[in-house]
Amino acid sequence: MDDSTATASEFDGALRLADWGVIRARGADAASFLHSQLTQDIVTLDEEQARLAGYCSAKGRLLATFVVWREGPEDFLLACSADLLSATLKRLSMFVLRARCKLTNASAEIDLTGIAGPGARAALGTGFPDAIWQCRALGGGRALRLPDALGGVPRLLFAAAAGAAAAPALPALDLSAWSWLEVSSGVARVTAATAEQFVPQMLNLELLGGVNFQKGCYPGQEVVARSQYRGTLKRRTYLVDSSAALTPGQEVFHSADPAQPAGMVVLAASLRPQRHRALVELKIASLDGGELRVGDVLLRPTELPYSLATEAA
Question: What is the reported pTM?
Answer without folding.
Answer: 0.93
